[in-house]
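Thread: Newbie trying to understand structure tokens

Hi all, I'm a second-year student working on a class project, and my supervisor (Dr. K.) asked me to get a predicted structure for one chain before our next meeting. I've only ever worked with sequences, so writing a 3D structure as a token string is new to me. If someone could post the tokens and maybe explain what I'm looking at, I'd be very grateful. Here's the chain:
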Amino acid sequence: MKNYYITLLILVTFGCSRVFALEIKIDHSESASYLHFLAAGFQQPFSSRSLQDVIKNKNVKSFSKNKNKDDYNLLKSYLQNGYNFDSPNSRPSGVYGEDALNLLSVTNPSLTELEKNLSAFLPYDGINAYYRLKKVFYPEFEKILWDSSTKNHEQEMLKIKTAMENSRFVENLEKAKKFYASEYPENLALKVALIPINIGNGSIRHTSATNLKDAQIVPYISQLGAVSNLGVIFHEFCHAFYEAQSYKKQKEIEDYYLGHKSFHALFTYRYFNEFIATVLGNGWYQEKLDASKISKSWYDVEYIDKMAKALLPEVTKYVELGKSMDQSFLEKTINVAEQLFPDAPFQVESNMIAIKILSNLNISTSAISESLRKKFRIQSINKSAPIQSEDWNELTKVGVATPLTITNSKEELSPEIKSLLNEKTIKDVNMIAVIPVKNRFIVWMNLRDKAKLDGAIEILRDKKIFDKTLWVKEF
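---
Reply by user tm_fold:
Sure, no problem. This is what the structure looks like when written as tokens:
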């Protein structure tokens, strides 16, 4: 198969002494498209709903067969483990097998080339599961998504190149980099894998892009063209700039939000990365690309969408003046959050976006994660099992993630947690407690019967709002 790709190399001069070469590589990727096809077919979080709808309308029944589900779950079990680099507590930076495989799908657009690396991520039974799935689903992928798009790849690349040059994409990206005070490596090219989705007569146009450090995976609707998602590409590059801030800058931002007295500070910090990328890519840059095509909704999460729109004037001022985000800007974000969402810090949804699972339950933390993801939109989950003494010590400290502590018996609770509970409420029954601590909440589930886990999570979801005082429910 012939690939059509573009590489933009722009030299940006600072004064007379320094030249910065920013390189961007964009290509359609068979590898990324196939992996996204599998994720959408198996209804995975953060896959494109437009592609899910296409697969549903094509009546691909193989996704509902248990043997195929088992193989896909086996792949996930091997890929969804990882490690963290040294970073501030609220900004973990590491490599997970799933992320690494997706990243390689950007640098290896050919699926056969990607497959040469499978043994780096999977044991032999995982590789066998992969090829069993490929035998079933690759022909469907070719028919539904890939074969019909390849004839348009060259034309799409030419349109993107022209649009990027006319909208001064790279120069504006450099302004965004300065706003972040980012230390993104000068010699590391920014890379994009495009995924074409032909929706036919379908009406769902939702796509879900992925940031993987220097590599971005960006689906687009074929009927609209790849240029329609240039704002999304800009958005995803902004995530890379955020991740590439110096340790000192990251710590400065973390300390400001986590040390702030406002309940809204933690809420704002949880969504900060996403709404800043949204205002820059979907708002500020999109206006320069084509102001007539700015969509009514910039992001499908209301918190992020409204925060981004409200902050557009302030961000525009900073970026156009060449200023980097500072404490005055961070304070502005908290003030905006207080005005737009007075109850947001107490809403269950905003508190469950980042979770730290501490469990003594005789169920794997991966199974607990799966149950939670079915009920909540979660961006990050950390896990510890069984619960260690240092885990209890960390519970009452301020952090971004909401601690979800699961025990089999009240006797397993630490003295620190018991002191936050009314002694009369601590019973050896199936129960949930939501404990307010400083400007966040701790969730405790005591499950005498592990089969009650899904029911407990549903009770938590249906609560909607966390109380400002201790809340307990037996079930």
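A couple of things are worth pointing out once you decode it. The chain has three domains: 5-81+89-237, 256-343, 348-474. The longest strand covers residues 18-28. Feel free to ask follow-ups in this thread.
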